[in-house]
Amino acid sequence: MKINSFIPVFVGAFIFFLGFFIGTNLTNKDSIKILRTNKNVLTNPLLDCEIYETSQNTKVNLMKKNVLNLINTYQDDHKEVSVFFRDLNNGPSFGINENNKFAPASLLKVPLMIAYLKENEKNPEILNKKILYNGDHYLKENLPNIDTLTPGSSYTVDNLIYRMIAFSDNLAFESLLGNIDQNTVKTVHKELDLIYPDINTPDDYISVKSYAGLFRVLYNSTYLNREMSDKALKYLTQSDFHLGIQAGIPKNTMTALKFGIRDADGKGTIQIHDCGIIYDQKKPYLLCIMTKGGQSNKLIEMIKDISKEVYRSNLN
After folding, report:
1. How many helices (H) and strands (E) does the chain have?
2. Distance CA 212, CA 87 (A)
3. Closest to 306 (Cα-Cα) out of 71, 59, 65, 23
4. Closest CA to 85 of 250, 269, 288
5. CA distance linking residue 173 with residue 171, whole number of Å
6. Could you tell me if 263 and 20 are in contact, meaning their C-beta atoms sit under 8 angstroms apart?
7. If we measure between CA atoms, which residue out of 168, 111, 163 comes closest to residue 133?
8. What structural domains does the chain harbor?
9. What is the number of other CB atoms lying within 10 angstroms of the CB of residue 136?
10. Are 170 and 260 in contact, with CB atoms under 8 Å apart?
11. Cα–Cα distance for residue pair 109/115, rounded to 1 Å
12. Which is nearest to 185 in space by CA: 103, 275, 106, 113?
C-alpha cells in the first residue's frame, strides 16, 4: 500500500520537528583492531577484528577533553550541544551528552534515502521510476526560485533523492515519501534502531549516538549492499551546506554529511545539526554534532569550531 494517505501524519510530525550503532566505551587497555577491504573510496566493509592494546584511547580521551573545554567557552550563550566521534580505522570513540535528545528535522531524509536504496536491491528499476510532481505539498518549500520542482513535471527517483540529500529539498522529500510503502520506511527505522515519528512523537527524540549509526552502517556496508552503500554516500558528498563541519576542516577534504535545521519554537530555541563522515586520507572519522540555542549564527560557529578541534586532534 502506498502511503499517500499517510503523508499528512508523517509530514505533520516532520513539520513539528522541521524548520529546519553503537558506540563502544573502551578501557585504557583495550581497543579494536579492524581488518577491512580498503579497496573503495566511500565504503570500507568490515572483514575481521581483534582486541589489542593501543595508545589510541589516550588520544581520544584528550580529544574529548579539548572539545569539552571548547564547548565550555560557549556556555554563557545558554547552548546545548551533543557530540559523537568515532575513528573509522580502528574504532575508538567518545561521546559528549551523546544520549541527549534533539528534533531531527531534515536528518529524517537519510533513512528515507536508505529505504529507497534497500528497495532498489530487490528491484533495480526503482531509481529510474518517474514521479509526477503535481504542485501539492505540506512542507514549506525551502528552495524558492532556485531550481525548485515544477508542477506538472516528472522526476526520476534518483534525481529526487539527489535533490533531497544535496539541497535538503523538502518538495523532493514529500514526493519520495508519497511513493513508497509505509511499512518499508517503518522497517528501515526499526532495523536501524531509530524511532519512526508520528504526531504523538515528542519534539526531541533522536540522539547523536543513534543517528551516527546510520553513517557507520553505510561506511561498513552492513545494511545496504556495497553498491547501494556507496551510492548513498555519494549523494551525501554532494551536500551544499558548507557552514558547519565542512567549515572547520581543509577545503579539499571529502565529506559525506547531512545537516538539519529546526526554526525557533515557541521558546525561541533553534536547533542546528551536522553529521557524517570526514574522509581524511589517513584517518577517516565519523562526527555528529547536534545543538540547541537562541542564535543560529552562534550554533553554526560552535559546530565549525568543534569540527576544527576534532580534525586537529585527529591528526596529532
Report:
1. 9, 9
2. 12
3. 71
4. 288
5. 5
6. yes
7. 163
8. 4-315 (3.40.710.10)
9. 11
10. no
11. 10
12. 113
Q: Which bin fits 144, alpha (ψ -120 to 50), beta or left (φ > 0)?
A: beta
> Counting beta carbons within 10 angstroms of the beta carbon of residue 96, is it exposed (0 to 12), middle (13 to 18) or buried (19 or more)?
middle
Place of cell 528552495: 143
- Residue 187, C-alpha cell as written in the block: 522497517
Cross-strand pairs, 258: 275
pLDDT tens track, the chain, 316 positions: 444 545 555 555 554 444 433 333 433 344 444 445 455 667 666 544 544 445 568 888 999 999 999 998 887 666 899 999 999 987 789 999 999 999 999 999 999 999 999 999 999 999 999 999 998 877 766 555 567 889 999 999 999 999 999 999 999 999 999 999 989 999 999 999 999 988 888 989 999 999 999 999 999 999 999 999 999 999 999 998 899 999 999 988 999 999 999 887 767 889 999 999 999 888 899 999 999 998 888 999 999 999 999 999 888 7
Name residue 154's beta-bridge partners. 132
- pTM listed for this prediction: 0.84
Torsion 265-136-104-205 (CA) sign: positive
**Cα(206)–Cα(81) distance, integer angstroms:** 13
Tell me how long the chain is: 316
The contacts of residue 297 (CB under 8 Å, 6+ apart) are none
Of the candidates 208, 258, 283, the one whose C-alpha atom is nearest the C-alpha of residue 23 is 208
